[in-house]
Each structure stands twice: as C-alpha cells, then as structure tokens.
TrEMBL record:
It comes from the Bacteria. Residues 7-88 form the PepSY domain. Residues 1-22 form the signal peptide. InterPro entries: PepSY. Pfam families: PepSY_2. It comes from Methylobrevis pamukkalensis. This is PepSY domain-containing protein. Keywords: Signal.
Amino acid sequence: MTLKLKLIAAALLALAPTAALADADCTAEPKEKWMSEAAMKAKIDALGYKVKTFQVSGSCYEIYGWTKEGKRAEVYFNPVSGEIVKSEIE
C-alpha cells in the first residue's frame, strides 16, 4: 500500500465515528403524527435546554445549544414522543 493510500485510509477511519454520530434514527412514524414544532420547543425548554438552533434532521427534531448547566449540547429527539434519542454533551 502506498503512503498516499495509507493516508487516505487513515483519514476515512478518523471521520467514521463523526459520521455515525451525525445520524439518528428517531421514528418511522409519518410527519402527520409528529408533535408540532411549537410543542417540541416547549418540551425542550421545560427540560432546561437553551436552544441556539432547532431543526428537523431526518426523522428527528434536533437542537444545538446548552444544557441548564451551561454545557454545549447536540440532542436528537423522537418527534412523536419527545424523548431524547441521542445526545452529545460537551
């Protein structure tokens, strides 16, 4: 294996865990069954998150912001139940 191929392989392996964190599978339910964005935002607020960005990401509601303790947070929510599916807190 050439040096160039080794470097490419190493770069791809380094990126693999990041790509896996980016996707969450939150629900298979159709969007008609999702809670409204306003209701989800109210639930997130009640959980104590300060939201910088709120968005639909695949089959999830996703936020970027801070926990009530002030730690940075990326959180994926099931849009039907409002439960946290995946979170990354720094």
